[in-house]
Amino acid sequence: MEKKRDFLEKAGTRPGKTILITGGHLSNLGVQALLFTTIEHLSRRFPDRDVYLLSYRDHLRPEAEKQAFTFTILPWDLEIKTELLWKRGRWLRPLRGRRYTSQGISRLRSLLEKTAFIIDISGFSLSSQWPFRVSVQYLLNIKIASRFRIPFYIFPQSFGPFDYSWIQKKMIFPYLRKLLPYPAKIFAREASSLAALKQFTQDNVSPLPCLDMVLLNREYDLNRIFIHPPSLDPPRIASPAAAIIPNLRVMERTHRNRMFHIYQDMIDVLLQQGKKVYLFSHTGEIDAPIAEKIMRDAEGKSGVFLIEKELDAVEIRVLIRGFEFIVAARYHAVVHAYKNGVPALVFGWSSKYNELLKTFDQSQYLTDIRTGLDSVSVLAKLDALLGRLPIEEQVIQAKMKELESLDNAPVYSAIEAR
Q1: Are 280 and 323 in contact (CB under 8 A)?
Q2: CA angle, residues 180, 186, 191, in degrees to nearest 5
């Protein structure tokens, strides 16, 4: 049986000195970038506060890894949430054993009672496009904030659609109507997200879409994120080069074998054009097998490389600058590309991709797999992009210049800590 963890042994308990972050983790470079962006800004605005990331998967990391950051990582899962709300986390114990000591749960309860506010940075969780349990877990975070009367802020992210099955709608819609009005402020990234939220809450929702926080963020001040900032050592790229950044979520929602064949067709075109092709994972162990499979399928093709190094959100910003363009199925891979003026051919599976590319006048380079996947269409878009790379670079750079006057200040200024 897993050893019980008294995980709050060193947690601070200063009244009003605690900030909690939900929805964040380190495994996905997009969410990691959101986390680093949030941590940096909180450090600037609230330098005397103790910041905690609530993340079960990151709590399992080796102590040396966790201690490298300026914030503290605590576990957060269904057992903890049900214990805090109803003292019924024990219902789960016959299935997997008890994970936490009563003392640890008690200390977390004490920490919540002294929390100034909670920020959620999920990115994209509250939607029927994910398994039903993801929406339930999301709402439990709001329920806990409500129970402990903690101000709750939902930072810019995507919402909806809410096309659950009829029985799921019967179960979750009453809670959406009850809990979504609780957060002090909800920021949605897209017009479609605002429309999806409208049926459940309006007064606490920002009236206009908010651009992604990573997109508007400047260079990181690593001293505000790491105790000892690491030296950057991104892989070296031989020019001219393109990157392919796959996404398991796309594979799950389309014809898998056809997608792999399309990747090989694109690699053939790029090699014929004299480009080097680099494959890498944007989300650790989730996307790595996809990149590895594409590499195996490309065996014998000179000029195709697999980057196996585990990158972080800082290194990927530097790495992407070295490519002429990318083929990406990860939202924040596209965000990082546009921040650097790098064009992208994109495979998307939700409305967040459509609206991001529309913002940069790049919609013609999006393949929305919800409407089908056709090799001829994808290769035509690739050919069009290859023929217009210098032009599209200028279009993207001009749009980023327009956005330079914007920042995330309106989001952070909404916070009123108790």
Answers
A1: no
A2: 105
Rounded to 5 degrees, φ, ψ at 228 are: -125, 100
β-partners of residue 75 are none
Candidates 232, 214, 213; CA nearest to 222 is 232
Instruction: Please give the Cα distance from 169 to 166 (Å, whole number).
Output: 5
pLDDT 10s digits, 174-227: 999 999 999 999 999 999 999 999 999 999 999 999 999 999 998 899 999 999
What's the whole-number average pLDDT of the chain? 91
Query: Which regions of the chain carry the CATH code 3.40.50.11720?
Result: 18-230+407-413
Alpha carbons 360 and 289: distance in angstroms, whole number: 31
Rounded Cα distance between 394 and 392, Å, is 5
Which architecture characterizes domain 241-387 according to CATH? 3-Layer(aba) Sandwich (3.40)
First-last CA distance in the chain: 40
Closest by Cα among 107, 95, 92, 79 to 6: 107
Phi and psi at residue 148, to the nearest 5°: -95, 5
Name the segment(s) of the chain with CATH classification 3.40.50.2000. 241-387
Q: Look at domain 18-230+407-413 and name its CATH class.
A: alpha beta
| DSSP per-residue string spanning 117-130 | EEEE--SB-SSTTS
pTM: 0.92
Cβ of 208: how many Cβ atoms within 10 Å? 10
Amino acid at position 6, single letter: D
Q: What is the DSSP string of 40-99?
A: HHHHHH-TT-EEEEE-HHHHTS-HHHHTTBSSEEE---HHHHHHHHHS-GGGGHHHH---
